[in-house]
Design brief:
binds adenosine monophosphate; Dna Ligase, domain 1; single chain; alpha+beta
């Protein structure tokens, strides 16, 4: 029986389903309540499995339907934000494309730092205590949805003043200030390269790059400095969309070096290592140095820009190759060679 590609109805689902169809695979959509109409407009799902919430993925009935369909689940960002990753790792029976164990490393700030350090990439310096701040920092509040209330501080005094302000505004709970993540603020351009690692060809591919379009931070530049001060605005970093980037060609050496380093680190720390799509969230400073401040160990929504392929996928494949299609191709190739276990966990 041919494989079915299954995914949850959000994030990059349309692209994943379309990619599966392009590779001649069947598709199943795990459709969240209220989204049926949206997804039916695109006619990409052969089967629809209804769910009230992301956690329903763990229900026996849902899992049985996926197993009956011979489905491989393609995880994306919505699965991570749904939490309960321990249970997902342990109790979810159908095969998952990629390394299901790395999702927890993406979710947990300490594990994330450990993996990035092992990858040998340049990371913005982090500070244990605000007393140690010796350069501009970005302060990331625990549980801040959409980055609401993140602030920039230049020294310990500035930190205390601004922390007081965010707690007065109720953006941080009492006693939680200590849990804020303090990281060097890198002035530069954000870049999110989209990588794919194939355990079959043992190659790291670059399939695209984007930057995010975030509200309200990307709108603040449209308000004059004086009005910004008067309005006492608190910026948020909620992603609303993505903007394509083509990288300066001489940056590609460092981009690939970072991707290769990440794949080696994952092999060492998170067996069986990286499989499929991942993204390193970077800032490039004025000297052209790349700093990695986050990673995603699965498909990122920025790849939605390239349903018809990107400049990089075109150089590699000479046919439209989205990340969704690249995933489906890996599933198809692996299953034709009897190697599905090598690309799933
Ligand atoms: P995050 O919640 O870590 O994804 O950060 C939200 C946004 O803050 C990012 O999209 C960047 O625009 C910005 N940002 C995060 N970390 C840094 C940093 N170390 N230096 C400069 N900007 C940052």
């Amino acid at each position: 029986m041919r494989s079915t590609v299954a995914t949850i109805s959000s994030h990059s689902a349309l692209q994943i389903l379309r990619g599966a169809k392009d590779e001649g695979l069947r598709t199943a959509l795990l459709c969240l309540k209220g989204r049926e109409d949206l997804y039916s407009r695109f006619r990409l799902a052969d089967t629809i499995i209804k769910m009230d919430a992301v956690e329903d993925l763990l229900e026996k009935g849902v899992q049985k339907r996926l197993l009956d369909e011979n489905a491989v689940l393609v995880p994306h960002g919505t699965l991570i934000s749904g939490g309960r990753l321990d249970e997902f790792e342990r109790d979810f029976k159908p095969p998952v494309f990629g390394n299901r164990h790395i999702l927890r490393w993406e979710y947990d700030r300490d594990l994330k730092d450990k993996l990035l350090k092992e990858a040998g990439v340049r990371i913005p310096k982090s500070f244990r205590s605000h007393a140690d701040i010796d350069r501009p920092v970005i302060v990331k509040l625990p549980g801040a949805e959409g980055g609401r209330g993140y602030f920039i501080a230049k020294d310990a005094k500035d930190f205390e003043r601004k922390m007081k302000r965010v707690s007065e505004k109720g953006l941080i709970k009492e006693g939680e200030a200590e849990k804020a993540f303090i990281q060097e603020y890198v002035v530069g351009a954000t870049l999110y390269p989209h990588y794919f690692y194939s355990p079959i060809s043992k190659r790291v591919e670059l399939l695209g790059c984007d930057r995010r379009y975030e509200t309200s931070i990307d709108g603040l530049g449209r308000i004059g400095a004086r009005d910004q001060l008067d309005l006492d605005l608190i910026p948020t970093f909620r992603v609303m969309g993505n903007i394509p980037i083509v990288l300066r060609e001489s940056l590609l050496t460092d981009i690939f070096e970072a991707g290769d380093g990440f794949v080696s680190a994952a092999k060492k720390l998170v067996p069986p290592g990286m499989i499929g799509p991942f993204c390193l969230e970077m800032i490039c400073d004025e000297e052209g140095r790349l700093y990695t401040f986050e990673f995603s160990g699965r498909i990122v929504a920025g790849t939605n820009l390239f349903v018809g392929g990107s400049p990089y996928s075109d150089l590699l494949y000479h046919e439209p190759m989205s990340m969704g299609r690249r995933i489906a191709r890996e599933i198809r190739t692996a299953s034709e060679k009897g190697l599905l276990a090598r690309v799933t966990t």
